[in-house]
Amino acid sequence: MSWLISAALITCLLGGLLWKGYQLSRQPWNLPLQGIVGFLAFALIGRILRDVVGDASLVRGGPVWSAVAWHAPTSAAVLSLLFFFDAATLPRQVAKRRTRRNLLVLVTAELVMIGAAALAPAPRSVPHMSVIYFAANLFMGCALAACAVSALRYARQAERRLSMGLRVASVGFVLVAVTSGIFAAIDVEYWFTGTLFMNIIGVNGTLSFTGIVAIVIGLLYPAARMRLTAIRIWWRQRQAYQALGPLWTALHHAFPEDEFLRASTTPWDSLRVWDVHRRYYRRMIECRDGLVRISPRVARLREDHPADTPLPDLIAEALQGSPVDDGEHQRAVPLAIPESNSAHDEVDELVALSRAFAARHSATSGRAA
């Protein structure tokens, strides 16, 4: 199961790196995007190295170089994440200056880890392993605490949905920073006494995992909300597009020249978000244009019919004649116009008319049969 989780994590990191890397190639000056790409790249390197060199245990005292191999890029990933928040909330020069200062701290921590591993008398050494873990946990604790501060600063500047996600992420950053500090204290304790408090380690590990989950949820929440909203809009537009079919078909048969030129005719048109959006508005406009064209004849028929004659009946009768000839030089009249100027209400009005038109056609066909 662990290899499956690792493979899924590597796949997600690699996919995110390719996606954001492509965006960065088109916007190389974008500092926040540079931070995201750096985070994904170093996190991916750290995850791969951990799988390649194997896990390193503090209790077993090593292997010391295995610990350095995946702690070093993981620390760089945390610094890249901090750079993202600083670049997103601070002036460009201030963000660069803070990052240069933080980079010196990272280099110092990694030199301590490398030095401890180089001075170890054997591949496994508890005192030297304690130094490696202490340096890594202390750096990541400080960096994650700074991420929490930057995330809260970002939340104060962001819109409501993004602000909520950043506040949740900041809580996660605080949890992981505190647990990293506790782990650093445990490393010192183990260095001097050679004993570990397993109950504390278990609780601390659970809190750290909870913090990581909160960070992931907080950072993904705004994008997830946006995607869900896009899916709801896509579904509503696709349903409206299909519901407008009966009215559009009748009007298109009468006025085929009003149809817009199609940019694509692939089978995926009815599913892809942008194509559904484009086809939806095209059909709505074509229906409205057709009603404008047929409206003079409908107005004439309305004078000869009772006032309560349904509009679908009048449109059907008008379409049976020659609306182009009869109504070409007459003034258009409004048909199926909502009380408000909302585009959503206008679509609802057209959908209701189309459904009534389809119901009338079905009833007429049933009587004819």
Q: What key phrases describe this protein's structure?
A:
single chain; 369 residues; mainly alpha; 0% strand; elongated; 12 helices
Short description:
With 369 residues, the chain is mainly alpha-helical. The chain has helices at residues 2-26, 31-53, 64-89, 92-119, 126-157, 160-193, 198-243, 245-254, 273-304, 311-320, 323-327, 343-368.
Major β-sheet profile: none
In helices, the fraction of residues equals over 70%
Strand content: under 5%
Compressed to H and E, one letter per element, the order equals: HHHHHHHHHHHH
Count the strands?
0
How would you describe the overall organization of this protein?
The protein is mainly α and 369 residues long. The chain has twelve helices and no strands. The chain starts with a helix and ends with a helix. 34% of the residues are buried.
Question: What is the fold's blueprint, element by element?
Answer:
Blueprint: H1 2-26, H2 31-53, H3 64-89, H4 92-119, H5 126-157, H6 160-193, H7 198-243, H8 245-254, H9 273-304, H10 311-320, H11 323-327, H12 343-368
